[in-house]
Amino acid sequence: xxxxxxxxxxILVDKGLVDPAAxxxxxxxxxxxxxxxxxxxVVAKAWADPAYAARLKADATAAIAELGFTGRQGEHMVAVFxxxxxxxLVVCTLCSCYPWSVLGLPPxxxxxxxxxxxxxxxxxxxxxxxxxxxxxxVQVRIWDSTAEIRYLVIPQRPAGTEGWxxxxxxxxxxxxxxxxxxxxxVPDSLxxxxxxx
Length: 197
Ligand SMILES: [Co+2]
Fold this sequence. Notes:
This protein is mainly alpha-helical. It has helices spanning 2-14, 20-33, 36-48, 50-58, 60-66, 100-103, 108-111, 113-121, 123-129, 166-170, 175-179, 188-191, and strands at 77-81, 86-91, 139-144, 150-154. It has 2 domains: 1-29, no CATH class; 34-186, Nitrile Hydratase, Chain A. The protein has a two-stranded parallel ribbon. The protein has a two-stranded parallel sheet with strand order 2-3. Cobalt (II) ion is lined by residues 92, 94-97, 145.
C-alpha cells in the first residue's frame, strides 16, 4: 500500500497536479494543529449551552462552523447524542472516513480491518476491549462514516459537573468518547466524593 501511494504521488507530482510542499503543509496541519481538542470544545459547549446543543442536533455542520471548525473531511457533519438508553459508535467499514475538522487524523486502530469489521459484528466485544462495558439494557447504534457524512458522538455529561466552565468540561472529553469507543472522563475529585471549589 505504501509503495502504491508513493507511486501515485510521484505521478501526480511529475504531472504538476500536486505540490509536495502543499501536501506536507496539509498533513502537518491535521497532524499537529487540528486535533480532538476541537471536538472537545464542541461537546463542552453542547453540555453547557442547551440552545447550542439544539443547533448541533439540527445542523451539526453549521453549529461546528460557529466555533470556526470547518474544512476538509468535515463538510457534512452529523452529531449523535448518547443518553441513558443509547450508546453511539462510529466506524468506517469501507476505509477510514473520519471527521478531521473536529478530531484531527484518525488513530491507527480506526483504520484497521479488525476494527472496521468487528465494530459492526460485535460492538460490545470491541467496546469491552477498549475497557468500556455497557449495561446490557443500553442499545448500541453503529454509524458507518462515508465520504459524504462524518459523525461526532456527543458523550453523556458526567454527573456532578453542573456549573463547570466550558474549558473545564472540555478536559473531560476524550477522542475515544467522541468516536464512541469510550465515555467522558469522570474527574477524580468526583469519584472520591470531594466537593469542588
Ligand atoms: Co471511509
